[in-house]
Each structure stands twice: as structure tokens, then as C-alpha cells.
Amino acid sequence: MNPWTGWALAIAALGVGWFGYGWQGLVFSITLVVFWLLLQFNKAVRVMRNAGSAPIGHIDSAVMLNAKLKPGMAMMEIVMLTRSLGQKVSDAPEQYRWTDTGGSRVTVEMRGGKLVEWTLWRPQAETA
């Protein structure tokens, strides 16, 4: 969700609570906003804990990751897909890489925290 949309919804909930039910409605609205923030924090911690227990930059299948990537995805969504933190390739542009056991790898480029471009590289098959 866009941060501006989230803040607008939080302010709208506070306004509706206050004007509809007075101070009790305001307290209820604050409770709802805090609960939503705790849910988001819990999700982020769970994703990072799962990713932290896996080797950096390793995935099961680079081809499957390549098929699931979409422009505009946030890094949190990519980490949820890979269950691993990406190996940082460069700072400018910001790039991360995941490699599978077969040697195939996916390199993603992020701008402003969003996925803008990715490439799949597969090793050449040896001919007999």
C-alpha cells in the first residue's frame, strides 16, 4: 500500500471516530490504527526472520522467481518470494542477485524501493 494512502486512511478513521462518537470513537480509532501498525511490523519481522535463516542470495529456482517478478514490486515482496536476502551487486544502480543450485541467477534492479528491471542468466548447456 502506498504510504500516503495509509496515512490518509488513518486520519480519516480518526476523523470519523471523533465526529461520529466523540472521544470514545477517537480512542477506538487510535486503537485500530495502532493494531494495523503492529500487524505490519509483525509481518516485516516474520519475513526478515525467515530470510535471515537462509543463505544470502540463494533460492530454489531462479526460473520460477523470474516468472513471478513484476515491475513495481517492493523489496519486502521479493524477499517473501525468495525467502532469502539478496546478495548486493552494486549501489548505483541498486542491484541484488539470487542464485540457485544449478547456477542460474536472477539480478534485480531497484529504484526508490521498487523493482524496475530484472534479468535471468542461465549457464550454457555443455555439448558432448
Automatic annotation (TrEMBL):
The chain crosses the membrane at residues 6-39. It comes from the Bacteria. Keywords: Membrane, Transmembrane, Transmembrane helix. This is NfeD-like C-terminal, partner-binding.
